[in-house]
Specification:
Elements: H1 2-5, E1 15-16, H2 27-43, H3 46-50, H4 54-66, E2 73-76, H5 79-88, E3 95-99, H6 104-111, E4 116-120, H7 126-137, E5 141-145, H8 157-166, E6 171-175, E7 194-198, E8 210-214, H9 254-258, H10 260-270, H11 272-292, H12 298-301, E9 309-313, H13 316-324, E10 327-328, E11 330-332, E12 335-339, H14 346-356
Parallel strand pairs: 1-10, 3-4, 3-5, 5-6, 6-7
Antiparallel strand pairs: 2-8, 7-8, 9-12, 11-12
Helix pairs in contact: 4-10, 5-6
Keywords: Aminotransferase, Pyridoxal phosphate, Transferase
Protein name: Aminotransferase class V-fold PLP-dependent enzyme
Organism: Haloflavibacter putidus
């Protein structure tokens, strides 16, 4: 990871444990953004013509990286805009299943509409609770974050596949914002029907870059109505009734959306598999150290698999102490959230432990 780590200068001046809040920007992505902004500054409207193919290139890059179909990748500034568009395309009174403590941008838009909603609380035996709820409630749509923003609890790819196999009529809509970029993922074989991602966290693409991926079958259920000049503009959107075009009514920001290209390429240069193995090893060390100090909730300690997001028992005074020592983290829920990415090291963990022990 040493060469990849050099791409992120912000970690040199601080102990950055806040990728779950905002992922660091690489020099490669920064240079890409600077070049595009310079083009806009000097070329004016010619900027649009020069970069008119960039959206198709991004769709293709996302589809290749996550094993999907480019014609079913829609580009959005963030998860929330795409998700709200999807919900506006959902029949009223649809029965939803949600995770009660999930990310507000997942639950709030569903709760604000005329849907029937059931909940599962996030817990140690989360998979068993979800499966039981499926059998009893038989939801039409299950919306969930693959990795929980509060404490890092992660649903495994194997469980999601099993869920879809056993309940094929339920549409699985996943928020991958706290997940994509941390391990190998193949959308086509995942069991997930709709995947939405804000790319400024673990993909390190910067703010204003996001995407949704769809299985073709969901066109029969979701009927988006948002239309505009951009709906049929460009490769993959030529058809009059283009599904993904109904998520892209207006102009997209070529600079921000385009930043997915260098961000994905940077991951591919290192290898997603290598990053996954590194993070699994680092996560295990973090979990062991924090568990030994009794700083993690029981539901996290007792689970076999975990992400690289952890919520420590700690009050406002400890949070201020950490920030004063230049350890960048977040207050979330009742504790202090720390998160480790490929630019973090065991040394970062040791710096954290020095303060909290």
């Amino acid at each position: 990871m040493k060469n990849l780590r050099k791409q992120f200068p912000a970690h040199k001046t601080q102990t950055y444990l806040n990728t779950a809040g905002v992922g660091l920007l690489s020099e490669t992505v920064f240079d890409f953004k600077a070049d595009k902004n310079l083009d806009l500054l000097t070329l004016g409207s010619e900027f649009m013509q020069k970069h008119e193919t960039i959206y198709a290139e991004v769709r293709e890059a996302v589809a290749e990286f996550l094993n999907g179909k480019a014609q079913y990748v829609t580009l959005v500034p963030n998860f929330s805009i795409g998700f709200n568009t999807l919900l506006e395309a959902t029949p009223q009174n649809t029965n939803f299943l949600l995770l009660k403590e999930d990310y507000p941008s997942v639950n709030m838009p569903v709760e604000a509409r005329n849907f029937t909603i059931d909940y599962v609380h996030i817990q140690e035996n989360l998979e068993e609770a979800i499966y039981k709820a499926f059998k009893i409630k038989q939801p039409k749509v299950f919306v969930f974050s693959i990795v929980q923003y509060l404490n890092g609890i992660k649903l495994s790819q194997e469980f999601i596949k099993e869920l879809k196999k056993d309940f094929p009529d339920t549409i699985l809509v996943a928020d991958g914002t706290q997940y994509c970029g941390t391990e190998i993922f193949a959308f086509e074989n995942s069991g997930i029907d709709v995947l939405g991602v804000s790319a400024y966290k673990w993909l390190n693409a910067g703010l204003g870059a996001g995407f949704f991926m769809f299985k073709p079958e969901v066109e029969n259920f979701f009927k988006p109505k948002m239309l505009g000049y951009g709906s049929n503009l460009g490769k993959y959107k030529e058809q009059p009734d283009c599904f993904i075009g109904k998520f892209e009514a207006g102009h997209l920001d070529a600079t921000n959306i385009g930043s997915l290209l260098p961000a994905i390429n940077l991951i591919k240069q290192t290898g997603q598999e290598n990053i996954q193995l590194y993070l699994e090893e680092l996560s295990g060390k973090v979990k062991t150290a924090l568990s030994n100090l009794n700083l993690l909730e029981k539901s996290v300690v007792n689970r076999k698999q975990h992400s690289t997001i952890f919520n420590l028992k700690g009050d406002d005074a400890l949070f201020k102490k950490l920030m004063a020592k230049n350890i960048i983290c977040s207050q979330r829920g009742e504790g202090i959230r720390v998160s480790f990415h490929h630019y973090n090291t065991v040394e970062d963990l040791n710096k954290l432990l020095e303060i909290i022990t």
